[in-house]
């Protein structure tokens, strides 16, 4: 709950500013500094002192709240999950996946790339790796609505609503971007976002992501866990 401008307490005096306001500002400054430091120097160059200096706060403030570099990484990943990001809605599954892939490609090829630096950092911190896994799982869960819309529009068979591995489809559609840019370190292909999306849609329509029914499994066991 935020402070209301001009609000007064029962005695008629203006209330003191809540500590949360300053705390939120300090957090924003520090996390912005983490992103900048991480993108410029990578995990190896990320230090509490460097973050504090860039953020314009005392290092004891950083140590008190985040303790160490691992804590900074976890919080910057958690902050990414707090943004009001919404999956694309273009009117078709192919269009949605293409738009999603273009967002991904842009985040990977911009220099310096915070997304790539953060992925690399997660290999050096178990806490950061767990936080990143939570973020990815949440993003995939958000994007499952793309498949639900496709079923509603008739782009995919109606049975896909219960028998299709939506996360598997999303991974298949987006994985080529990571393979090309991150693993192969190749130049970005402007046609790849749409080609990868189209391939995933065709595969889904052909039943490639259908989940086999298990007569002994309950309804909640038909789809694999992420």
Please give a structural write-up:
- The chain has helices spanning 19-41, 48-55, 59-66, 69-82, 93-109, 114-122, 126-153, 160-163, 166-183, 192-205.
- The chain is 63% helix and 0% strand.
- The protein folds into two domains: 19-72, Homeodomain-like (Arc Repressor Mutant, subunit A), CATH 1.10.10.60; 85-213, Tetracycline Repressor, domain 2 (Orthogonal Bundle).
- It is mostly helical.
- The longest helix is centred in the middle third of the chain and has 28 residues, at 126-153.
- Keywords: DNA-binding, Transcription, Transcription regulation.
- Residues 24-84 form the HTH tetR-type domain.
- Residues 1-23 are annotated as: Disordered.
Structure summary:
With 226 residues, this protein is mostly helical.
Helix-strand sequence: HHHHHHHHHH
Number of helices: 10
Can you identify the CATH superfamily of the largest domain?
A: Tetracycline Repressor, domain 2
The percent range for strand residues is under 5%
Structural class label:
mainly alpha
Query: Sheet bearing the most strands, described?
Result: none
| Estimated helix fraction | 55-70%
CATH class of the largest domain, named Mainly Alpha
Poorly predicted segments: 1-19, 215-226
The beta-strand count equals 0
Shape: elongated
Task: Kindly report how far apart the N and C termini lie.
Answer: 34 Å
Q: How many domains, as an integer?
A: 2
- Report Rg: 22 Å
Topology:
Blueprint: H1 19-41, H2 48-55, H3 59-66, H4 69-82, H5 93-109, H6 114-122, H7 126-153, H8 160-163, H9 166-183, H10 192-205
Organism: Streptomyces tendae
DNA-binding region: 47-66
Keywords: DNA-binding, Transcription, Transcription regulation
